[in-house]
Amino acid sequence: MRKTVIAGNWKMNMTPKAAGEFIRALAPEVKGKDKCDIVLCVPFVDIATAAEAAKGTNIKIGAQNVHFEEKGAFTGEISAQMLLEAGAEYVIVGHSERRQYFGETDATVNLRTKAALAAGLKVILCLGEVKEQRLSGITDEVVAMQTKLDLAGITEEQLKNVIIAYEPVWAIGTGLTATPEQADETCGVIRKTIAAIYSEKAADGIVIQYGGSMNDGNAAELLAKANVDGGLIGGASLKTDKFTAIVDAANK
């Protein structure tokens, strides 16, 4: 049985002080709601403060990106070991904003995924189609190709520490959301691709989140779908009441 994972992606929001205050306010609201795993992926500078505030709670802390080298002359970058020592357990790799604004490719996503897994981090691997691809009817081909490229060289054992977040790029930050049927269908395509690459067992075990404007109003309907195992939450993860409502929906 796959466990639902509700992960918040704070993006470039919240100072360390605000992060600590938020988690201390959120913790009692989600206490004991253990039918899902709860993760907050915070800015690099917030990780240590967030990890300290989350101690003794059911909230896990993640980062939003990782470099693929262990160390070196990479000004401004952060290694997997740095994330671990700061207190992160998870890291988002390949978010559409990284791909769109910062030149991320499937090749670099693959390298970052390998580096994170080798260091002992759990990876939330993002993929999804742009609007033109959806309208052209090639969504299935696009997400299958991304799945294969992004996981190239990852073993079935390593895959146990990978969560895939399907995020239709046209739904990120736009207020648009894939219908529950669209989300379920495309997550199903990803699952079938995992089965083809690895095994039916691997496909049955992997958590596939939906990550396109899931919020407190639509979470229950999306999470009810067979192939949707959680959510990668953007804006709604910055409000304790909205994020708690999504966790509640995952615990029903």
Description:
The protein has one domain: Alpha-Beta Barrel (TIM Barrel), CATH 3.20.20. The chain is built from twelve helices and eight strands. The chain has helices at residues 16-30, 47-54, 80-86, 96-102, 106-119, 131-135, 139-150, 156-159, 180-197, 200-205, 219-223, 240-250; strands at 4-9, 36-41, 59-63, 90-93, 122-127, 162-166, 207-210, 230-233. It has an eight-stranded parallel β-sheet. It is globular. It starts with a strand and ends with a helix.
Output the keywords.
alpha/beta; globular; 8 strands; TIM Barrel; 252 residues; single chain; 8-stranded parallel beta sheet
Binned, the helix content reads 40-55%
> Which structural class do the helices and strands define?
alpha/beta
Say what the CATH topology is: TIM Barrel
- What CATH first level would be assigned? Alpha Beta
Strand order of the largest sheet: 7-6-5-4-3-2-1-8
Number of self-contained structural domains: 1
Poorly predicted regions? none
The number of helices is: 12
Annotated CATH homologous superfamily = Aldolase class I
What is the second-level CATH architecture?
A: Alpha-Beta Barrel
- The shape is globular
Query: Nearest-angstrom radius of gyration?
Result: 17 Å
Strand-residue proportion: 15-25%
The biggest sheet amounts to: 8 strands, parallel
Order of helices and strands: EHEHEHEHHEHHHEHHEHEH
**N-end to C-end Cα span:** 15 Å
DSSP summary, beta strand count: 8
Mean pLDDT: 96
